[in-house]
Automatic annotation (TrEMBL):
Protein keywords: DNA-binding, Transcription, Transcription regulation
Protein name in UniProt: Putative transcriptional regulator, TetR family protein
Transferase among keywords: no
InterPro entries, sorted: Homeodomain-like_sf, HTH-type_TetR-like_transc_reg, HTH_TetR
GO MF terms held by the record: DNA-binding transcription factor activity; transcription cis-regulatory region binding
Amino acid sequence: MIVQAALPLLTEYGSAVTTAKIARAAGIGEGTIFRVFADKEELLQACVAEALSPDHAVRELDAIDVSQPLPDRLAEAAEALQAHMDRLGAIMGSLGHHGGKHPGTVRGAGREESTSRVRAALADLLEPEKDALRRPPEQIAALFIGLLFTQPRTDGEPDLTPRELVEVFLGGALTGSAS
């Protein structure tokens, strides 16, 4: 509850947020924070761990209805994964962490395990079409995640929407039949 209350405040104020402000947002006394966390730094680390955790993204992916058409499922997945990365970027940016090395284990899950949990949840969304896929669902999921998170930023061209990304991913880059 304390970490959940702190996350939006960290996005807004960065590490300058006070524990008093966090306590007010959580509806608790400031002293309660220090019964849970040794100091503000430990609280900030718990917030980073929460931001890095794949749990929220996996829950979002698991909630997508697999009876929808594949393009709809993938567009919803792209939105959920982009929202996860936006939250992570907002927290890390506000704390002055501009990329670099993953800080290590997050709630028992290191970077590789976190990535693999998200990829597995996405592969589950592809499973109903596995017989129509050119590659196994896990590999298609990895390709989709790669495309989603490495979209090139081009001058004068807007970023692809999740739906446009899915169209290019599923249909390819050609507008007509290949000769």
